[in-house]
Specification:
This protein is an alpha+beta fold. It is built from three helices and six strands.
């Protein structure tokens, strides 16, 4: 009578181990996945022009509207939700620069959640170290990041390398 119970216990243990491995691999995938598709979809739905996408730098974390940090790699083994953040700068139709954040949350059990929030800051830092205020009007003969003179048909600023769309 003991052998059927032992067999059921072994099968249940095997299913549990395989399930936990699957959940861990799923979290590992979402931890390292880039979210360019989701960001591009958000930009198209809101009729925005993409300027820059990046992992948050030290100054970006100060303006994080989610008030959370990226999860550390060691947290894959813990049952907490993994968090991954991206920030991106866009230009609206009226020429204003805006910074948005994407946060992906992946719990051990359950569905992943992706959220977008607009940063509350008035100054954004570009990768080249230049900053620009978000309420600056876009003028066709000056770069909004470095104030370098540009022609209206140029796609990249000669001074700082900012790409125009």
């Amino acid at each position: 009578m003991e052998q059927p119970y032992l067999g059921i216990f072994i099968v249940a243990l095997l299913v549990l181990v395989l399930s936990l491995n699957f959940l861990t691999l799923r979290r590992l995938y979402y931890y390292f996945k880039n979210y360019l598709y989701e960001i591009n979809e958000f930009i198209q739905l809101n009729n925005l022009s993409l300027i820059e996408i990046r992992n948050p730098n030290k100054t970006d974390w100060l303006n994080n509207p989610f008030r959370t940090r990226n999860s550390m790699f060691i947290e894959l083994a813990l049952p907490f939700s993994l968090l991954t953040h991206y920030t991106f700068i866009v230009q609206s139709i009226n020429g204003e620069f805006e910074q948005y954040w994407l946060r992906m949350s992946c719990p051990l059990i359950g569905n992943k959640k992706i959220a977008f929030k607009k940063a509350g800051n008035k100054t954004m830092q570009f990768e080249n170290g230049k900053s620009v205020k978000s309420n600056v009007e876009f003028v066709t003969n000056k770069c909004p990041a470095c104030d370098h003179k540009i022609d209206s048909d140029i796609k990249n600023c000669i001074g700082c390398g900012l790409t125009f769309h």
